[in-house]
Amino acid sequence: MSLPQAFxxxxxxxxxxxxxxxxxxxxxxxxxxxxxxxxxxxxxxxGFARMPLADGRVVSFVDVPGxxxxxxxxxxxxxxxxxxxxxxxxxxxxxxxTKEHLDILQLLGIERGIIALxxxxxxxxxxxxxxxxxxxxxxxxxxxxxxxxxxTSATKGTGLDALREAxxxxxxxxxxxxGPFRLPVDRSFVQKGFGVVVTGTVLSGTxxxxxxxxxxxxxxxxxxxxxxxxxxxxPSSQAGFRTAVxxxxxxxxxxxxxxxxxxxxxxxxxxxxxxxxHLPGVPELSNGTRIRVLTxxxxxxxxxxxxxxxxxxxxxxxxxxxxAEPLAVLPGDRFVLRxxxxxxxxxxxxxxxxxxxxxxxxxxxxxxxxxxxxxxxxRSVLLERAGPGGLxxxxxxxxxxxxxxLGDRILGPVQLVQQEQALLEALHSxxxxxxxSPAVPRRSLHRGRLAALGAQAFDALLxxxxxxxxxxxxxxxxxxxxxxxxxSTEQQQTAKxxxxxxxxxxxxxxxxxxxxxxxxxEGARVVAHLIEEQRLERIDTRVYDAEQxxxxxxxxxxxxxxxxxxxxxxxxxxxxxxxxxxxxxLEWMDTQGVTKRFGAVRIAPPP
Length: 607
Description:
The chain has 607 residues and is of the alpha+beta class. The protein folds into five domains: 6-168, P-loop containing nucleotide triphosphate hydrolases (Rossmann fold, 3-Layer(aba) Sandwich); 182-262, Elongation Factor Tu (Ef-tu), domain 3; 269-378, Elongation Factor Tu (Ef-tu), domain 3 (Beta Barrel); 379-486, Orthogonal Bundle (Arc Repressor Mutant, subunit A); 502-607, Arc Repressor Mutant, subunit A. The protein is 32% helix and 29% strand. The protein contains 16 helices and 34 strands. α12 (489-505) crosses α13 (512-532). It is elongated. Mean pLDDT is 88; it is low at 34-44.
């Protein structure tokens, strides 16, 4: 079963300007559900109705309250709508909530709508003309400046057909279903025989029957039992569709408005960077002020800080919001800011980075540059803000980020260059501090900034630099390409003296500690170099001349060829060593594969 061709239209306008009556007349359904709403004749909570169009599509209406004390509910209802039915009473004209609702709609990024001049049967033609001029003047410069304006009367049916035609002509396109599933809850109830049902407009992604979802910010895991899309049973739903979700594993009390049903990969966030517009005629905001943040159907308290100047009336700024509670938001989501008290609308804008680090005052200049780059399309900023280790592949994919893959990490271009430079600088420093060492143990470099990379990513970085011809890997060690130890004239003379001294000791060798002490600090480095170059051989705590060892090995092999086995007394004869010095050499030859111990004698190892 395919999803219906449908779109969502929200009402807006001052209290008693006929929004609900007009929806009722258009759809034949009463959006006012509460007894108090029917008794008082005003909308208190969100109302819902649906209307088939002649072309087979369906319009889902979200009817919002107009009273100033219910603006929060109005914003919740406007979340996710495709267009607005903007209602103005022909007898009263533009009123305070008319203007506030218009501001909110623009802050939420609504771009399409129809203007309904309501209750036209209660005024004469002259008043209708004056009201039309008043509305056009008030909406000049807004997204509704060129919207159709239709004179209506819900009681007499005036303009209803024209309104239906205008709704059918709205250029509404189906939204992309890309991204993770999110549905801000605007209503929850218990339906007999089914259990808990929540409704809302899907903001992003898709949802299917049987799917596991989570409830944020509570974190509860629930399962989708059944779905209705614009009033019809469907096996799935997606972004842009009014959806009722029948859930198993939930109680109605656990699903208040402001909760968000989400799929995998969505978490709550509290530190948010955003582009913000401060409305004309509202109070100036100081950094550190507590305000109300409204996004989707949620409202939380937060602290606001401007990153690029004072928040004065009719100005646009980059800001950071630090919310008291997690919000299930993503970049691109719209929000509205309202004063803590008295509660009035201050402005709103678009979220840019919901994974933002907290910015201190000293960070504001850097943060501003990053956000300006992000606004211009440089999404790699989100990777770079994650730190020198970038993001793991799963988180990068969930955020729709691409970069360079290093093992199990994804890095942005700046991070990658910085890590390459960090490794090359560490290598340069090692070579400068250890000029007689031909290579550095690779794991000894895995520290500092490079420690942010896991073992897989670090090894991948080494391979990347090796392929670029910048480093050479020698087993567990590495060096800058072309690096070779070059002894100075003085060091060459020291090496010559050390080799002569060790040779003079013969196979009794010299204790390494004594040799280093006698050679001094610089000489000890030369000793280490000679061992590295295999001109000296360290066995246990003693140092041997490598050529003398090879001569000894040749004599041992000749003996074994002739006699097939070698007792310790035979080796003492070959080497001229006492037991004290002979045993360590016998054990070393076993480890080198020259001999193999067989009982009390040594034999040649099998080929």
